[in-house]
Amino acid sequence: MKKKENKRSVFRIIKNTLFVLILVTLVAVIVTTIITRINGETPSLFGYSMFRVSTGSMAPELQVGDVILIQDTDPMTLKAGDIITYDGKEGDFAGRIVTHRVVKAPYKDGKETYILTKGDANSLNDPKVNVKDVRGKLVVKVDILKGLYNFFITPWGLLTIIALVILAFFNEIVIFVKSLFGIGYEPEPEESVEEIIERYQRENAEKQAEKEEEEK
């Protein structure tokens, strides 16, 4: 019986720890996302950022709805053929985040350094890109996340995430809320000296009985 109780206790501790970790992670992600969005930036973690392709300018390499992972990169190491993401500053690209292929490696033009890019499906090169505006280089297209990303960025998707977390950790959430507001809390009564001695003798007797049972 005690072994079963110990297993349940260990499972409960693991589950509670997992709940706290997920809760802290979700809060951190939400706060970070809100702050970066307010500042007009894209959330980044350990130098990696995730973007969703919104046009067909890079077809067939990248299709509308594809999710791509971009890594911070020294723009001076870029070469023709690399696919990069940058902040558009001129013409139709002004104010947009663009992911196109490098067609000319970094070169000097006066005091500034630029690169030339072009969408695979476009007939003309983009306006020259200052290396200061480069966000990073394409690492991989994450096909497995395409459907999930497109779903979870919707209001229904966010509600689904919240519902799944609540269902998975319903008991822990109830306990957490009760402890937070002191609901149902009753202070444990203090033991008298006689009760402490009695409990101590009872525990010793139980241990002795278990020991004798194991020796049989």
Query: Could you report the average pLDDT, rounded to the nearest whole number?
Result: 79
Q: Which band does the percent of strand residues land in?
A: 15-25%
Report the strand count. 8
Please identify the structural class as seen in this structure. alpha+beta
- Tell me the strand order in the biggest sheet: 1-2-3-8-4-5-6-7
The poorly predicted ranges are: none
Estimate the global geometry from the Cα principal axes: elongated
- The amount of helix comes to 40-55%
* Cα gyration radius (Å): 29 Å
Query: What letter string, H or E per element, gives the SSE order?
Result: HEEEEEEEEHHHH
What is the end-to-end distance?
A: 18 Å
Largest sheet: 8 strands, antiparallel
Number of helices: 5
Characterize this entry briefly.
This protein is an alpha+beta fold and 216 residues long. The protein is built from five helices and eight strands. Strands 1-2-3-8-4-5-6-7 form an eight-stranded antiparallel beta sheet.
Secondary structure elements and pairings:
Blueprint (H helix, E strand, L loop, with lengths): L1 H37 L5 E2 L2 E5 L14 E5 L11 E5 L9 E13 L2 E7 L10 E2 L3 E8 L1 H10 L2 H14 L1 H12 L11 H23 L1
Antiparallel strand pairs: 1-2, 2-3, 3-8, 4-5, 4-8, 5-6, 6-7
Protein model, in words:
- The protein is of the alpha+beta class and 216 residues long.
- Helix content is 44%, strand content 22%.
- The chain contains five helices and eight strands.
- Strands 1-2-3-8-4-5-6-7 form an eight-stranded antiparallel β-sheet.
- It is elongated.
- The two termini are 18 Å apart.
Please name the defining characteristics of this protein.
single chain; alpha+beta; elongated
